[in-house]
Design brief:
Elements: H1 2-22, H2 25-32, E1 35-39, E2 42-43, E3 47-50, E4 54-56, H3 58-70, E5 76-80, H4 86-91, E6 97-98, E7 112-114, E8 119-128, E9 143-147, H5 151-163, E10 168-172, H6 175-183, E11 189-193, H7 194-202, E12 210-213, E13 219-222, E14 225-227, H8 231-247, H9 249-258, H10 275-282, H11 289-293
Parallel strand pairs: 1-5, 1-6, 9-10, 9-11
Antiparallel strand pairs: 2-3, 3-4, 7-14, 8-11, 8-12, 8-13
Helix pairs in contact: 3-8
Length: 295
């Protein structure tokens, strides 16, 4: 009898895994009784953690509105993801939608799908004000921190090759750890998206001790990430976001998180909407980062 029960349990578990992999996201969430949103712990102001179990931010609130419209009676569960595990967790059905700070690029589009672009960022360096560093050239031969699994790793390697120089690279497991490398003096700079740099600086003990410097290392579109080949879910997500763009609702949301005081300290990041993002709002698209580099 015990062996029969074990066999039944095994079959049920296997069936659940197959359903998670094969069913559309909307059907999977309805059957499970909840939808799982992948979020980040320290990607301020896009997606970050407050306290022990609360997640907030521009992309978190945007995703909440999208899921509320598509699955009005289905509770949202939040799962913290990292730069390294966000794609595998989406692919295997552990999370249903990823609402963090993920760059849409050609390589990733082979594995996952992206909704239309909702933020465009420029990658730069955060340094300590007292260091006197104002340009990337002053960082050659110094220690630069960045986060494992992000596009900045490749951009820094390219910068080294193009200039015939090298950095001493340190890698944090997430943005908070990368900023800590700068804050503790173990790194001379932290290379990352401008919004993430501004967010971590605003949440630091002494924001005035840091500044963002250097020419942009690259311009990248950030998007909500969904499972590849779930065309119906992508179309539904895109439709809601496009309506928010055309109605002005998404610009209001942008203003809330980038130009107004945000928790936990009421800091104002003061990052006005750039021309590239305004263009994306007027003509919604899911173009990868490579398309921006060719403009």
């Amino acid at each position: 009898m015990n062996m029969k029960l074990a066999l039944v349990a095994l079959l049920v578990s296997a069936s659940a895994r197959v359903f998670a992999q094969d069913a559309g996201t909307l059907e999977k969430a309805k059957a499970a009784g909840s939808v799982v949103m992948g979020v980040r712990e320290s990607s301020t102001p896009l997606s970050y953690q407050l306290g022990s179990d609360k997640f907030v931010g521009y992309h978190v609130e945007l995703c909440g509105r999208v899921l509320g419209a598509l699955l009005p009676k289905v509770p949202i569960k939040y799962m913290s993801v990292t730069s390294q595990n966000r794609i595998p967790l989406l692919q295997n059905g552990t999370v249903d939608i990823e609402c963090g700070s993920t760059t849409n690029n050609t390589a990733r589009k082979q594995q996952v799908a992206f909704a239309v672009t909702t933020y465009v960022t420029e990658a730069r360096f955060a340094v300590r004000t007292a260091s006197g560093i104002t340009s990337v050239e002053q960082l050659f031969g110094k220690t630069v921190a960045t986060t494992t699994g992000t596009t900045l790793v490749q951009r820094l390697r390219k910068l080294e090759r193009d200039n015939g120089v090298s950095f001493n690279l340190l890698f944090g497991k997430d943005h908070a750890e990368s900023f800590l490398l700068l804050e503790s003096g173990r790194a001379d700079a932290f290379a990352m998206d401008d919004n993430t740099l501004a967010g971590n600086i605003s949440n630091s003990k002494s924001p005035q001790d840091y500044r963002i410097v250097g020419k942009p290392l690259g311009i990248e579109p950030l998007s909500i990430m969904i499972r590849k080949d779930d065309l119906r879910f992508k179309a539904a997500v895109d439709e809601i976001i496009k309506k928010m763009m055309s109605s002005g609702e998404l610009e209001q949301l942008y203003t809330k998180w980038f130009l107004r005081p945000i928790p936990p300290r009421g800091a104002v990041l003061n990052i006005p909407m750039g021309e590239a993002l305004r263009a994306a709002f007027k003509s919604p698209n899911d173009d990868p980062a490579e398309a921006y580099e060719n403009k």
